[in-house]
Amino acid sequence: MSDTDIDFLSEFYNYCYLYRNFSDNTCNSYQYDLKHFKEFLDNERNHVPLNQFSTEDVQEYLYNKCKDRAPKSISRIISCLKTFTKYCHSKDLRDDNPMIAIAEPQQSVKLPEFLSEEEVSKLLNAFDLRDPTEIRDKAMIDLMYSSGLRVSEIINLKLGDISFDECIVRVLGKGDKERLVPFAESTSKYLRKYYDEVRTKLPLVYDAEYFFISRKLRKLTRQSFWYRIKYYATKVNINKNIHPHTLRHSFATHLLNHGAELRSVQELLGHESINTTQIYTHVANNDLKKMYDNCHPRAKDNRED
């Protein structure tokens, strides 16, 4: 790979991070995808320069090198190359668009798994509030269901981000976009209990600015959150594949089931596109359909009428 191509990779990363405001994960993934596409251009397409690839180059790459990949992975590669094309336009490195004829693969809609309101109630009553660790977990898990925050947003909360009195949390979400999210007054009680009885009494905390702290006196990790929520789900016999976003999914689904507007849910979740939030309407509609089939006297017996 030439020095120029290496420059393209590093400059493209900077473009994604600084000008497009993409996350670290997205920038690293795009740089990885571009590097492998460049290797294909070198090895299979007679060293076509990275800023001169054609539609045919992309089609050949996707068909021969990516045919066994999942649709989501292929979509990311296509998105990477579209973004790289925009980067080239911004630098006057090309004036055509080789990606205009490239169609993204069809993706099946995978509905997020969520807990019923009864299951959430069981989960939120699973804690022994005489145990400092469980006081923390109660505050943390209650906040996630009450606010719909991402796991990364929960574990990165700073001490000054939470207003107990106003029941508002300041969140730095994806793309470093800040938003204010309300939470329930009952959640505030447990957040304050954790802060007063546990957090302020921890000695020599290494990550002192963070709100939720592990037993090793460090900022909590995603893996720790996943382990703790699995522990409590098992404790109260919730036999679902619980993962860190399950309560976020439940938050959105329950809001929609109770009549919340989709745009409001989008804002609370911090979704850039309403299409991302739209998935929860499918879940909510399915839930309502099951309720109708179970409860309406003519739902099943008289459909031929």
What does this protein structure show overall?
- It is a single chain.
- This protein has helices at 3-19, 24-44, 55-65, 71-90, 117-124, 132-147, 151-155, 185-197, 222-235, 246-257, 262-269, 274-295, and strands at 162-163, 168-172, 178-182.
- With 305 residues, it is mainly α.
- Strand 2 and strand 3 (178-182) form a beta hairpin.
- Helix 6 (132-147) runs antiparallel to helix 8 (185-197), helix 10 crosses helix 12 (274-295) and helix 11 (262-269) packs across helix 12 (274-295).
- The mean pLDDT is 87.
Summarize the structure.
This protein has 305 residues and is mainly alpha-helical.
State the distance separating the first and last CA atoms: 70 Å
Q: What is the SS-derived class?
A: mainly alpha
Give helix % range: 40-55%
- Relative strand content: under 5%
Q: Mean pLDDT, as a whole number?
A: 87
Number of helices: 12
In spatial order, strands of the major sheet run: 1-2-3
Radius of gyration: 24 Å
Count the E strands. Answer: 3
Q: What summary fits the major beta sheet?
A: 3 strands, antiparallel
Gross geometry: globular
Secondary-structure element order, as H and E? Answer: HHHHHHHEEEHHHHH
